[in-house]
Amino acid sequence: MNKLIVANLKMNKNSVEMSEYLEKIVKEEYSNDIVILPSLSNLFLSTVHQNEKVSYGVQNFFYKEEGSFTGEINLKMLEYMHVKYALIGHNERRKNFKESNATINKKVLNALENNVTPILCIGESLGQTRNNLYKAHLKRQLSLALRGVKLADLNKIIIAYEPTFAIGAENSADLLYVESNVALIKSILKAKSTKVDISPKILYGGSVSLDNYEAFLNSEFIDGLLIGRSILNADNLIKIGR
Ligand code: PGA
Hints:
By secondary structure, the protein is an alpha/beta fold. It has an eight-stranded parallel beta barrel, surrounded by four helices. The chain has helices at about 15-25, 90-95, 100-115, 125-130, 135-145, 175-190, 215, 235-240, and strands at about 5-10, 35, 55-60, 85-90, 115-120, 160, 200-205, 225. The structure holds 2-phosphoglycolic acid (PGA). 2-phosphoglycolic acid binds next to strand 8.
C-alpha cells in the first residue's frame, strides 16, 4: 500500500536552494505520495515544480479572516499556491511560540473550512512516558484539538504522532512503542462513533532517517512519515518516496 511521506522543511533553504531541491524531486517517479511543506517564502515555487505524486502544504498559518494581523497569513491568501495540507500543532510551535490547544483547535476547524487537510501533530514527553501519563496526554490532546469537528470530517484529518523526545533527536522512538501508541490513537478516534467508521491516516514523526524509515513504512499500523532533517537532502526524500 502506498504511504504518505510529509517533508517538513522547517526554517531551511533560500529560494534558489529550494528551487534546485524541488527541480530534483519532481523529476522522479514515486510509489508513495509526497507532501512538501516549504517555508511560506518558498511556497510560490509550488506553482512551478509539479509532479502528480507531489503535493504542497504549509507549516503554519493564521486562522482569522483578513484584517489587522500584522505579519500573519491566512489560507485564503494562499489560494493559488496549491496548498492541500496544513501542519498544525507541531511541537516546535507549541513550545517556541506557545501555541495552545485552543489555538490548534481553531486552526483545525479553519483548515477544514478552507478544504485544506489538517496534519495534526500530537505527542507525549519522555517524562509522561516514564510516569505512565502518556495515554491520558494523547487522549487529552486529541479531544482538545478536535473539539467541534464534525464526525464526518474526522477522516479528512491526518494525525502525526510525534513523541516530543524523538523530534530532532539522535534516535527515533522504538517501533513497537510507536505501533502501540498509533493503535491507541486509532482506538480513541474509533470510539467517537459507532455509526461512522472513523479511521484517519496516522503518521509517525521523530528522527526518521535512511537507516530506520523502512521499518516504519513496513508497519501495518503506520500510514506514513513526517520527516524533518533527513529530507533536507533531496536524494534522501527521493529514496524514501520511491
Ligand atoms: P526530525 O523532525 O525528523 O528532524 O526529527 C521531525 C519533525 O519535526 O516533524
